[in-house]
Write a structure and sequence with these properties.
Length: 210
């Protein structure tokens, strides 16, 4: 299935590029049909509704298709605790604060913004820990091609609150608790969390990049 998913994504990218650059009206028709087929395939392979997939891909017409960017703030307390939040949209499963990068914001600004909105804590970005290609990691199938940025941040001020529209509980999670947590694996995996904890004992290690 993963191979079919990659084929569907590639078909969609080629269709969008064709719709952007082809001067031929007949070719534009064909590229449009290919894009529709790719959306149907993505729907079948991921269970994401067509109504959600189609507008996102249609908005790419006129632009060369590029990966989406997911930014996550990595906030440690001491050597064995990590700030985590529950995603209401994913049945209160746990993840790191963060979300899609918005136009007009740097990745570091997104990490700060999302952490404040989701947890109540004001943080400052310290360093980039990793840039990962989502398809290289054990995430569930998804229509979009995604790069994940993990940015280490430190708390400056504020108090934890759990009243966000999209967020359930917010708390510090011990490393020993991670195997017992129900993770929002679309956003972060157990192996990625373990990888991030290696930076606690080796803070000067080079950033990871797929």
């Amino acid at each position: 299935m993963s191979k079919l998913l990659e084929i569907a994504k590639r078909l969609n990218a080629l269709a969008q590029a064709g719709l952007t650059y082809s001067p031929n009206a007949y070719d534009l028709e064909r590229f449009s049909e290919i894009r529709e087929i790719s959306v149907e395939l993505l729907h079948e392979l991921t269970d994401e509704p067509i109504e959600k997939i189609a507008p996102l891909f249609a908005s790419g017409i006129g632009e060369y298709p590029t990966p989406k960017v997911d930014v996550r703030a990595v906030v440690f307390r001491g050597e064995d605790e990590l700030l985590m939040v529950q995603e209401k949209i994913d049945h209160l499963r746990w993840t790191l604060p963060g979300g899609w990068d918005d136009v007009g914001y740097t990745p570091s600004e997104i990490a700060v913004k999302e952490t404040e909105e989701e947890t109540g804590l004001i943080v400052k970005p310290v360093r980039l820990l990793a840039v990962l290609d989502k398809r290289q990691h054990p995430h569930p199938p998804q229509p979009w091609y995604v790069y994940k940025f993990f940015i280490r941040c430190e708390v400056v001020s504020g108090e934890i609150r759990s009243d966000g529209h999209d967020i359930g509980q917010v708390r510090w999670v011990r490393r020993t608790e991670l195997p017992e947590l129900s993770l929002s694996e679309d956003r972060v995996t157990a192996s990625q969390l373990e990888m991030l904890f290696t930076f606690v004992t080796n803070p000067d290690a080079p950033a990871l990049c797929d």
